[in-house]
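Example record used in the benchmark description.
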Amino acid sequence: MSRAIASLREEGKIKMLEDYWFSYFSSNQPTAYMNQDSSSNPSSLSLQRFGGLFFITGISSTLVLSIFFLCFVYRKMLAFVTEKLEFLKGYIHYYLPTLSRNH
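Model output (structure tokens):
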């Protein structure tokens, strides 16, 4: 395989393929995939470059926190209602026989 690559490199076909595939890159705007000279400084990372990432992270965090909060409230409400029903069941069982005897 390396011999085939070496022969393509010697014939100039690899350069031709590179020129074909990367022809839409202009020479004024080098990219990370193209060779750059060492004198050019890479652009600094800024908030604008990560804006989409922060947006997605914020939306997903808010969604997960909302789901957790709703599940928490549901469990607390279910426990409260169950406790009140148990109280009423005990109340009814205690007082119902005495009410039916009075009539």
